[in-house]
Recover the amino acids of this structure.
């Protein structure tokens, strides 16, 4: 057990107290946002915005530009999702939980590929030497990009993409020495599985009516 604590704490030996506190805030708000998402609660977006804005700053300082760009996008998409989820007509939500259509699946694949391309350009632009973990970062960026878009439109497939990319990100952040973020994504994975089951139950109940 002590080895686990040493692993998580050693990464913060040279980190300022301010940045550690910011990461802790992002950790708590990030988890809270996924919990709200699982419940289909509109608070997912304002709470998530706090986490993503802080994370953009921290990742910029760490020079993880692919992840930074994704969190910047999460911030923008959170504003769109906030608006989209809050839309109502006759006191009923306009955007219900649904499955992706064939067209939306094709758009999703396109978004993964174009995001990977743009993320690669970002790394090159900043003169960053691409290593194996950066290529993984580029790939997961594409998955996360599409997952966020699906979530903003309440497509149940968003959870499948989160689960897949989260499972990859857990060891990636652990390798980078970002212990708190690695733990966060492990929790994200568990919550994403729960979110998928909750949304599937909601969707099945709606279709049964």
């Amino acid at each position: 057990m002590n080895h686990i604590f040493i692993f998580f704490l050693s990464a913060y030996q040279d980190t300022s107290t301010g940045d550690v506190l910011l990461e802790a805030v992002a950790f708590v708000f990030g988890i809270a946002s996924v919990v709200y998402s699982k419940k289909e609660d509109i608070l997912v977006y304002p709470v998530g915005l706090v986490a993503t804005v802080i994370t953009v700053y921290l990742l910029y300082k760490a020079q993880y530009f692919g992840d930074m760009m994704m969190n910047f996008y999460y911030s923008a998409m959170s504003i769109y999702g906030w608006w989209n989820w809050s839309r109502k007509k006759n006191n009923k939500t306009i955007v219900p939980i649904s499955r992706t259509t064939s067209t939306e699946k094709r758009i999703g694949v396109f978004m993964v590929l174009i995001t990977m391309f743009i993320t690669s350009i970002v790394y090159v632009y900043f003169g960053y030497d691409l290593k194996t973990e950066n290529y993984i970062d580029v790939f997961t960026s594409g998955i996360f990009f599409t997952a966020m878009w699906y979530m903003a439109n309440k497509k149940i497939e968003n959870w499948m993409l989160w689960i897949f990319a989260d499972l990859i990100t857990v060891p990636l952040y652990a390798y980078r020495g970002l212990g708190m973020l690695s733990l966060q994504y492990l929790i994200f994975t568990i919550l994403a599985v729960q979110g998928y089951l909750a949304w599937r139950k909601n969707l099945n109940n709606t279709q049964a009516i």
